[in-house]
């Protein structure tokens, strides 16, 4: 996204995204997509700023794409959450006033939640130690935030290294541990729409769900209420740790979480290879009727495509509509699209999230 945007253009830009998705899905006779819009301002829960020094004074700065040496100085960022905008000025002024906080500070990262929590990471070109801790603790208490300090090879955590988000999905509130530096959906309002749509799309089921790329359990938690059992897989160790914490925090007991890549899941389920991480798990006890995938931008690899083709229903959330269309071309011979949605996670950019429910022909 460029740093210049106009909320008055939002509806037109969203309409263009909708048409782009429709055009990509024409070959597959997809139904009309449901469109879930974003707030036009204060929608982004994360923000990262470099510090730019002019006349010895630090300023927040961002850079237009491809212009890494041409700083745009910023005092407020309307696309960022209101909490981020409230904190920007007081935080920077406090760092300017206290050398233990401000000396060789080069980057500030904000992570906020719809539930009101804020975690700020201060990044330094110098070592930080217990003296930094004492000054940072005073600042954290003044602003009502959690603070982390980072310098080369060092990480100083005050309070905790994560926020706890609360998302309303259907008639239930779910709590999520979101770790500093880990992946989380940046647009909380649209994330709630995504989760609610996925829950509605799968309906009530008496069989089981296979989930690939489960991350921190963003979708896993609400989807667990619609199936007998869930087997969820994720490769990232930090995401697995958060997913386990989130299952425990929400008292979800019908999910088995396995740290495997999607290719390894394919090998395990097709009997090609055995994995030590699957010891004690009876794969034959699962009756998978639905597979849920939320892959990276590259989409599904050929082996995973062949795996998901085996199931009656495929729920596919995509962050790249072009690779989604490529994958659908492979699945079209066995499955048809019965539901479709556009989620505007990233207003004022060409990026968009989409979702399709495919059912066996």
Explain what this protein looks like in three dimensions.
It is globular, with a radius of gyration of 22 Å. The chain has 361 residues and is an alpha/beta fold. The strands form three sheets. It has an eight-stranded mixed beta sheet with strand order 1-16-17-15-14-11-12-13, sandwiched between helices. Strands 4-3-2-5-6-7-8 form a seven-stranded mixed beta sheet, covered by helices on one side. The protein has helices at residues 10-25, 82-97, 99-102, 130-143, 188-202, 220-223, 237-249, 262-269, 302-308, 321-331, and strands at residues 34-36, 46-54, 57-63, 71-74, 105-112, 118-124, 146-151, 154-157, 162-169, 172-179, 208-212, 230-233, 255-258, 288-293, 313-318, 335-343, 353-360. The two termini are 40 Å apart. It folds into two domains: 7-40 and 187-360, 3-Layer(aba) Sandwich (Rossmann fold), CATH 3.40.50; 46-163, OB fold (Dihydrolipoamide Acetyltransferase, E2P), CATH 2.40.50.1070. 30% of the residues lie in helices and 29% in strands. A hairpin with a 7-residue loop joins strand 3 (57-63) and strand 4 (71-74). It contains ten helices and 17 strands. Keywords: Methyltransferase, S-adenosyl-L-methionine, Transferase, tRNA processing.
